Fold:
Amino acid sequence: MVAKVIDGKAFAANVRAQVADHVASLKKTNGITPGLAVVLVGEDPASQVYVRSKGKQTVEVGMNSYEHKLDASTSEEDLLALVDRLNNDPDVHGILVQLPLPKHLNEDLVINSIDPAKDVDGFHISNVGLLGTGQKSMVPCTPLGCLMMLRNHHGSLSGMDAVVIGRSNIVGKPMAQLLLGDSCTVTIAHSRTKDLPDVVRRADIVVAAVGRPEMVPGDWIKPGATVIDVGINRIERDGKNVLVGDVHYESAAQTAGAITPVPGGVGPMTIACLLANTLTACCRANGLPEPEGLTA
Ligand code: NAD
Structure:
């Protein structure tokens, strides 16, 4: 079997187009423009690239983008004061504080100071609790993107065996909650899991979120399974810098029924879902119906 390639780039473009349509009608019918504020502290090069890309895509879908770039030495007090201002700004519907923060700042404290209704990253402890108890919440963007692609490919996920490899707070754990919410039988595997190959071989759905280049080979994949590769690993191959996932793509694509490539799979969905979350937050804040198909 040669797997169907799940094209995350095309899927993300479609999500952005849906968001843009909804934003246009919000402006026309209700006179509301959703706004996303992104806060960057310091000069981490990767974070600068992400923030630029987020700002550009926010404007492209017709939303307002507010960028706040703060010096690496910014005090916790000043950062919390900015978050407080954004919490109280009616033009700001989504707030994202780019992680990682410089070491002297307490990430948990800062994230939990964001108004949960504007927490478009879904990292606030209230949103984590709401997701864990199956209530309406803001859902972390990367797992939301994975869920959308899985639903699109399968329709219903009910009763499927799913394995999530990795238990981070930003990907693994919320991914497992979302799959549970869609009635999968979910196993969370991690660095201490015994016999990982055997666990993966039983899964109809494999979500790999580890950060280890190509650690899941094709012979761990059940024939016909759907493989969602969240990993983004930069390695050197034949003297060139290349991006690879946590799954060994060439061999897994021979066994899987469907697979996301790296790059061009999960990656583009993350910002698309950030825009979807901002739109959702704006609709909720204004008591308007949420966009269909863009939430969990
Ligand atoms: P993390 O380092 O926080 O968590 C990694 C997890 O993998 C841990 O829970 C750990 O227990 C598990 N793990 C480590 N070694 C293992 C092993 N040998 N076997 C099984 N499990 C093992 O990482 P993260 O933030 O969840 O990110 C994971 C990967 O996803 C990274 O490559 C990251 O770059 C990528 N990522 C991509 C996106 C995207 O937009 N596509 C977003 C977030 C993260």
Remarks:
- The chain has ten helices and eleven strands.
- The two ends are 31 Å apart (CA to CA).
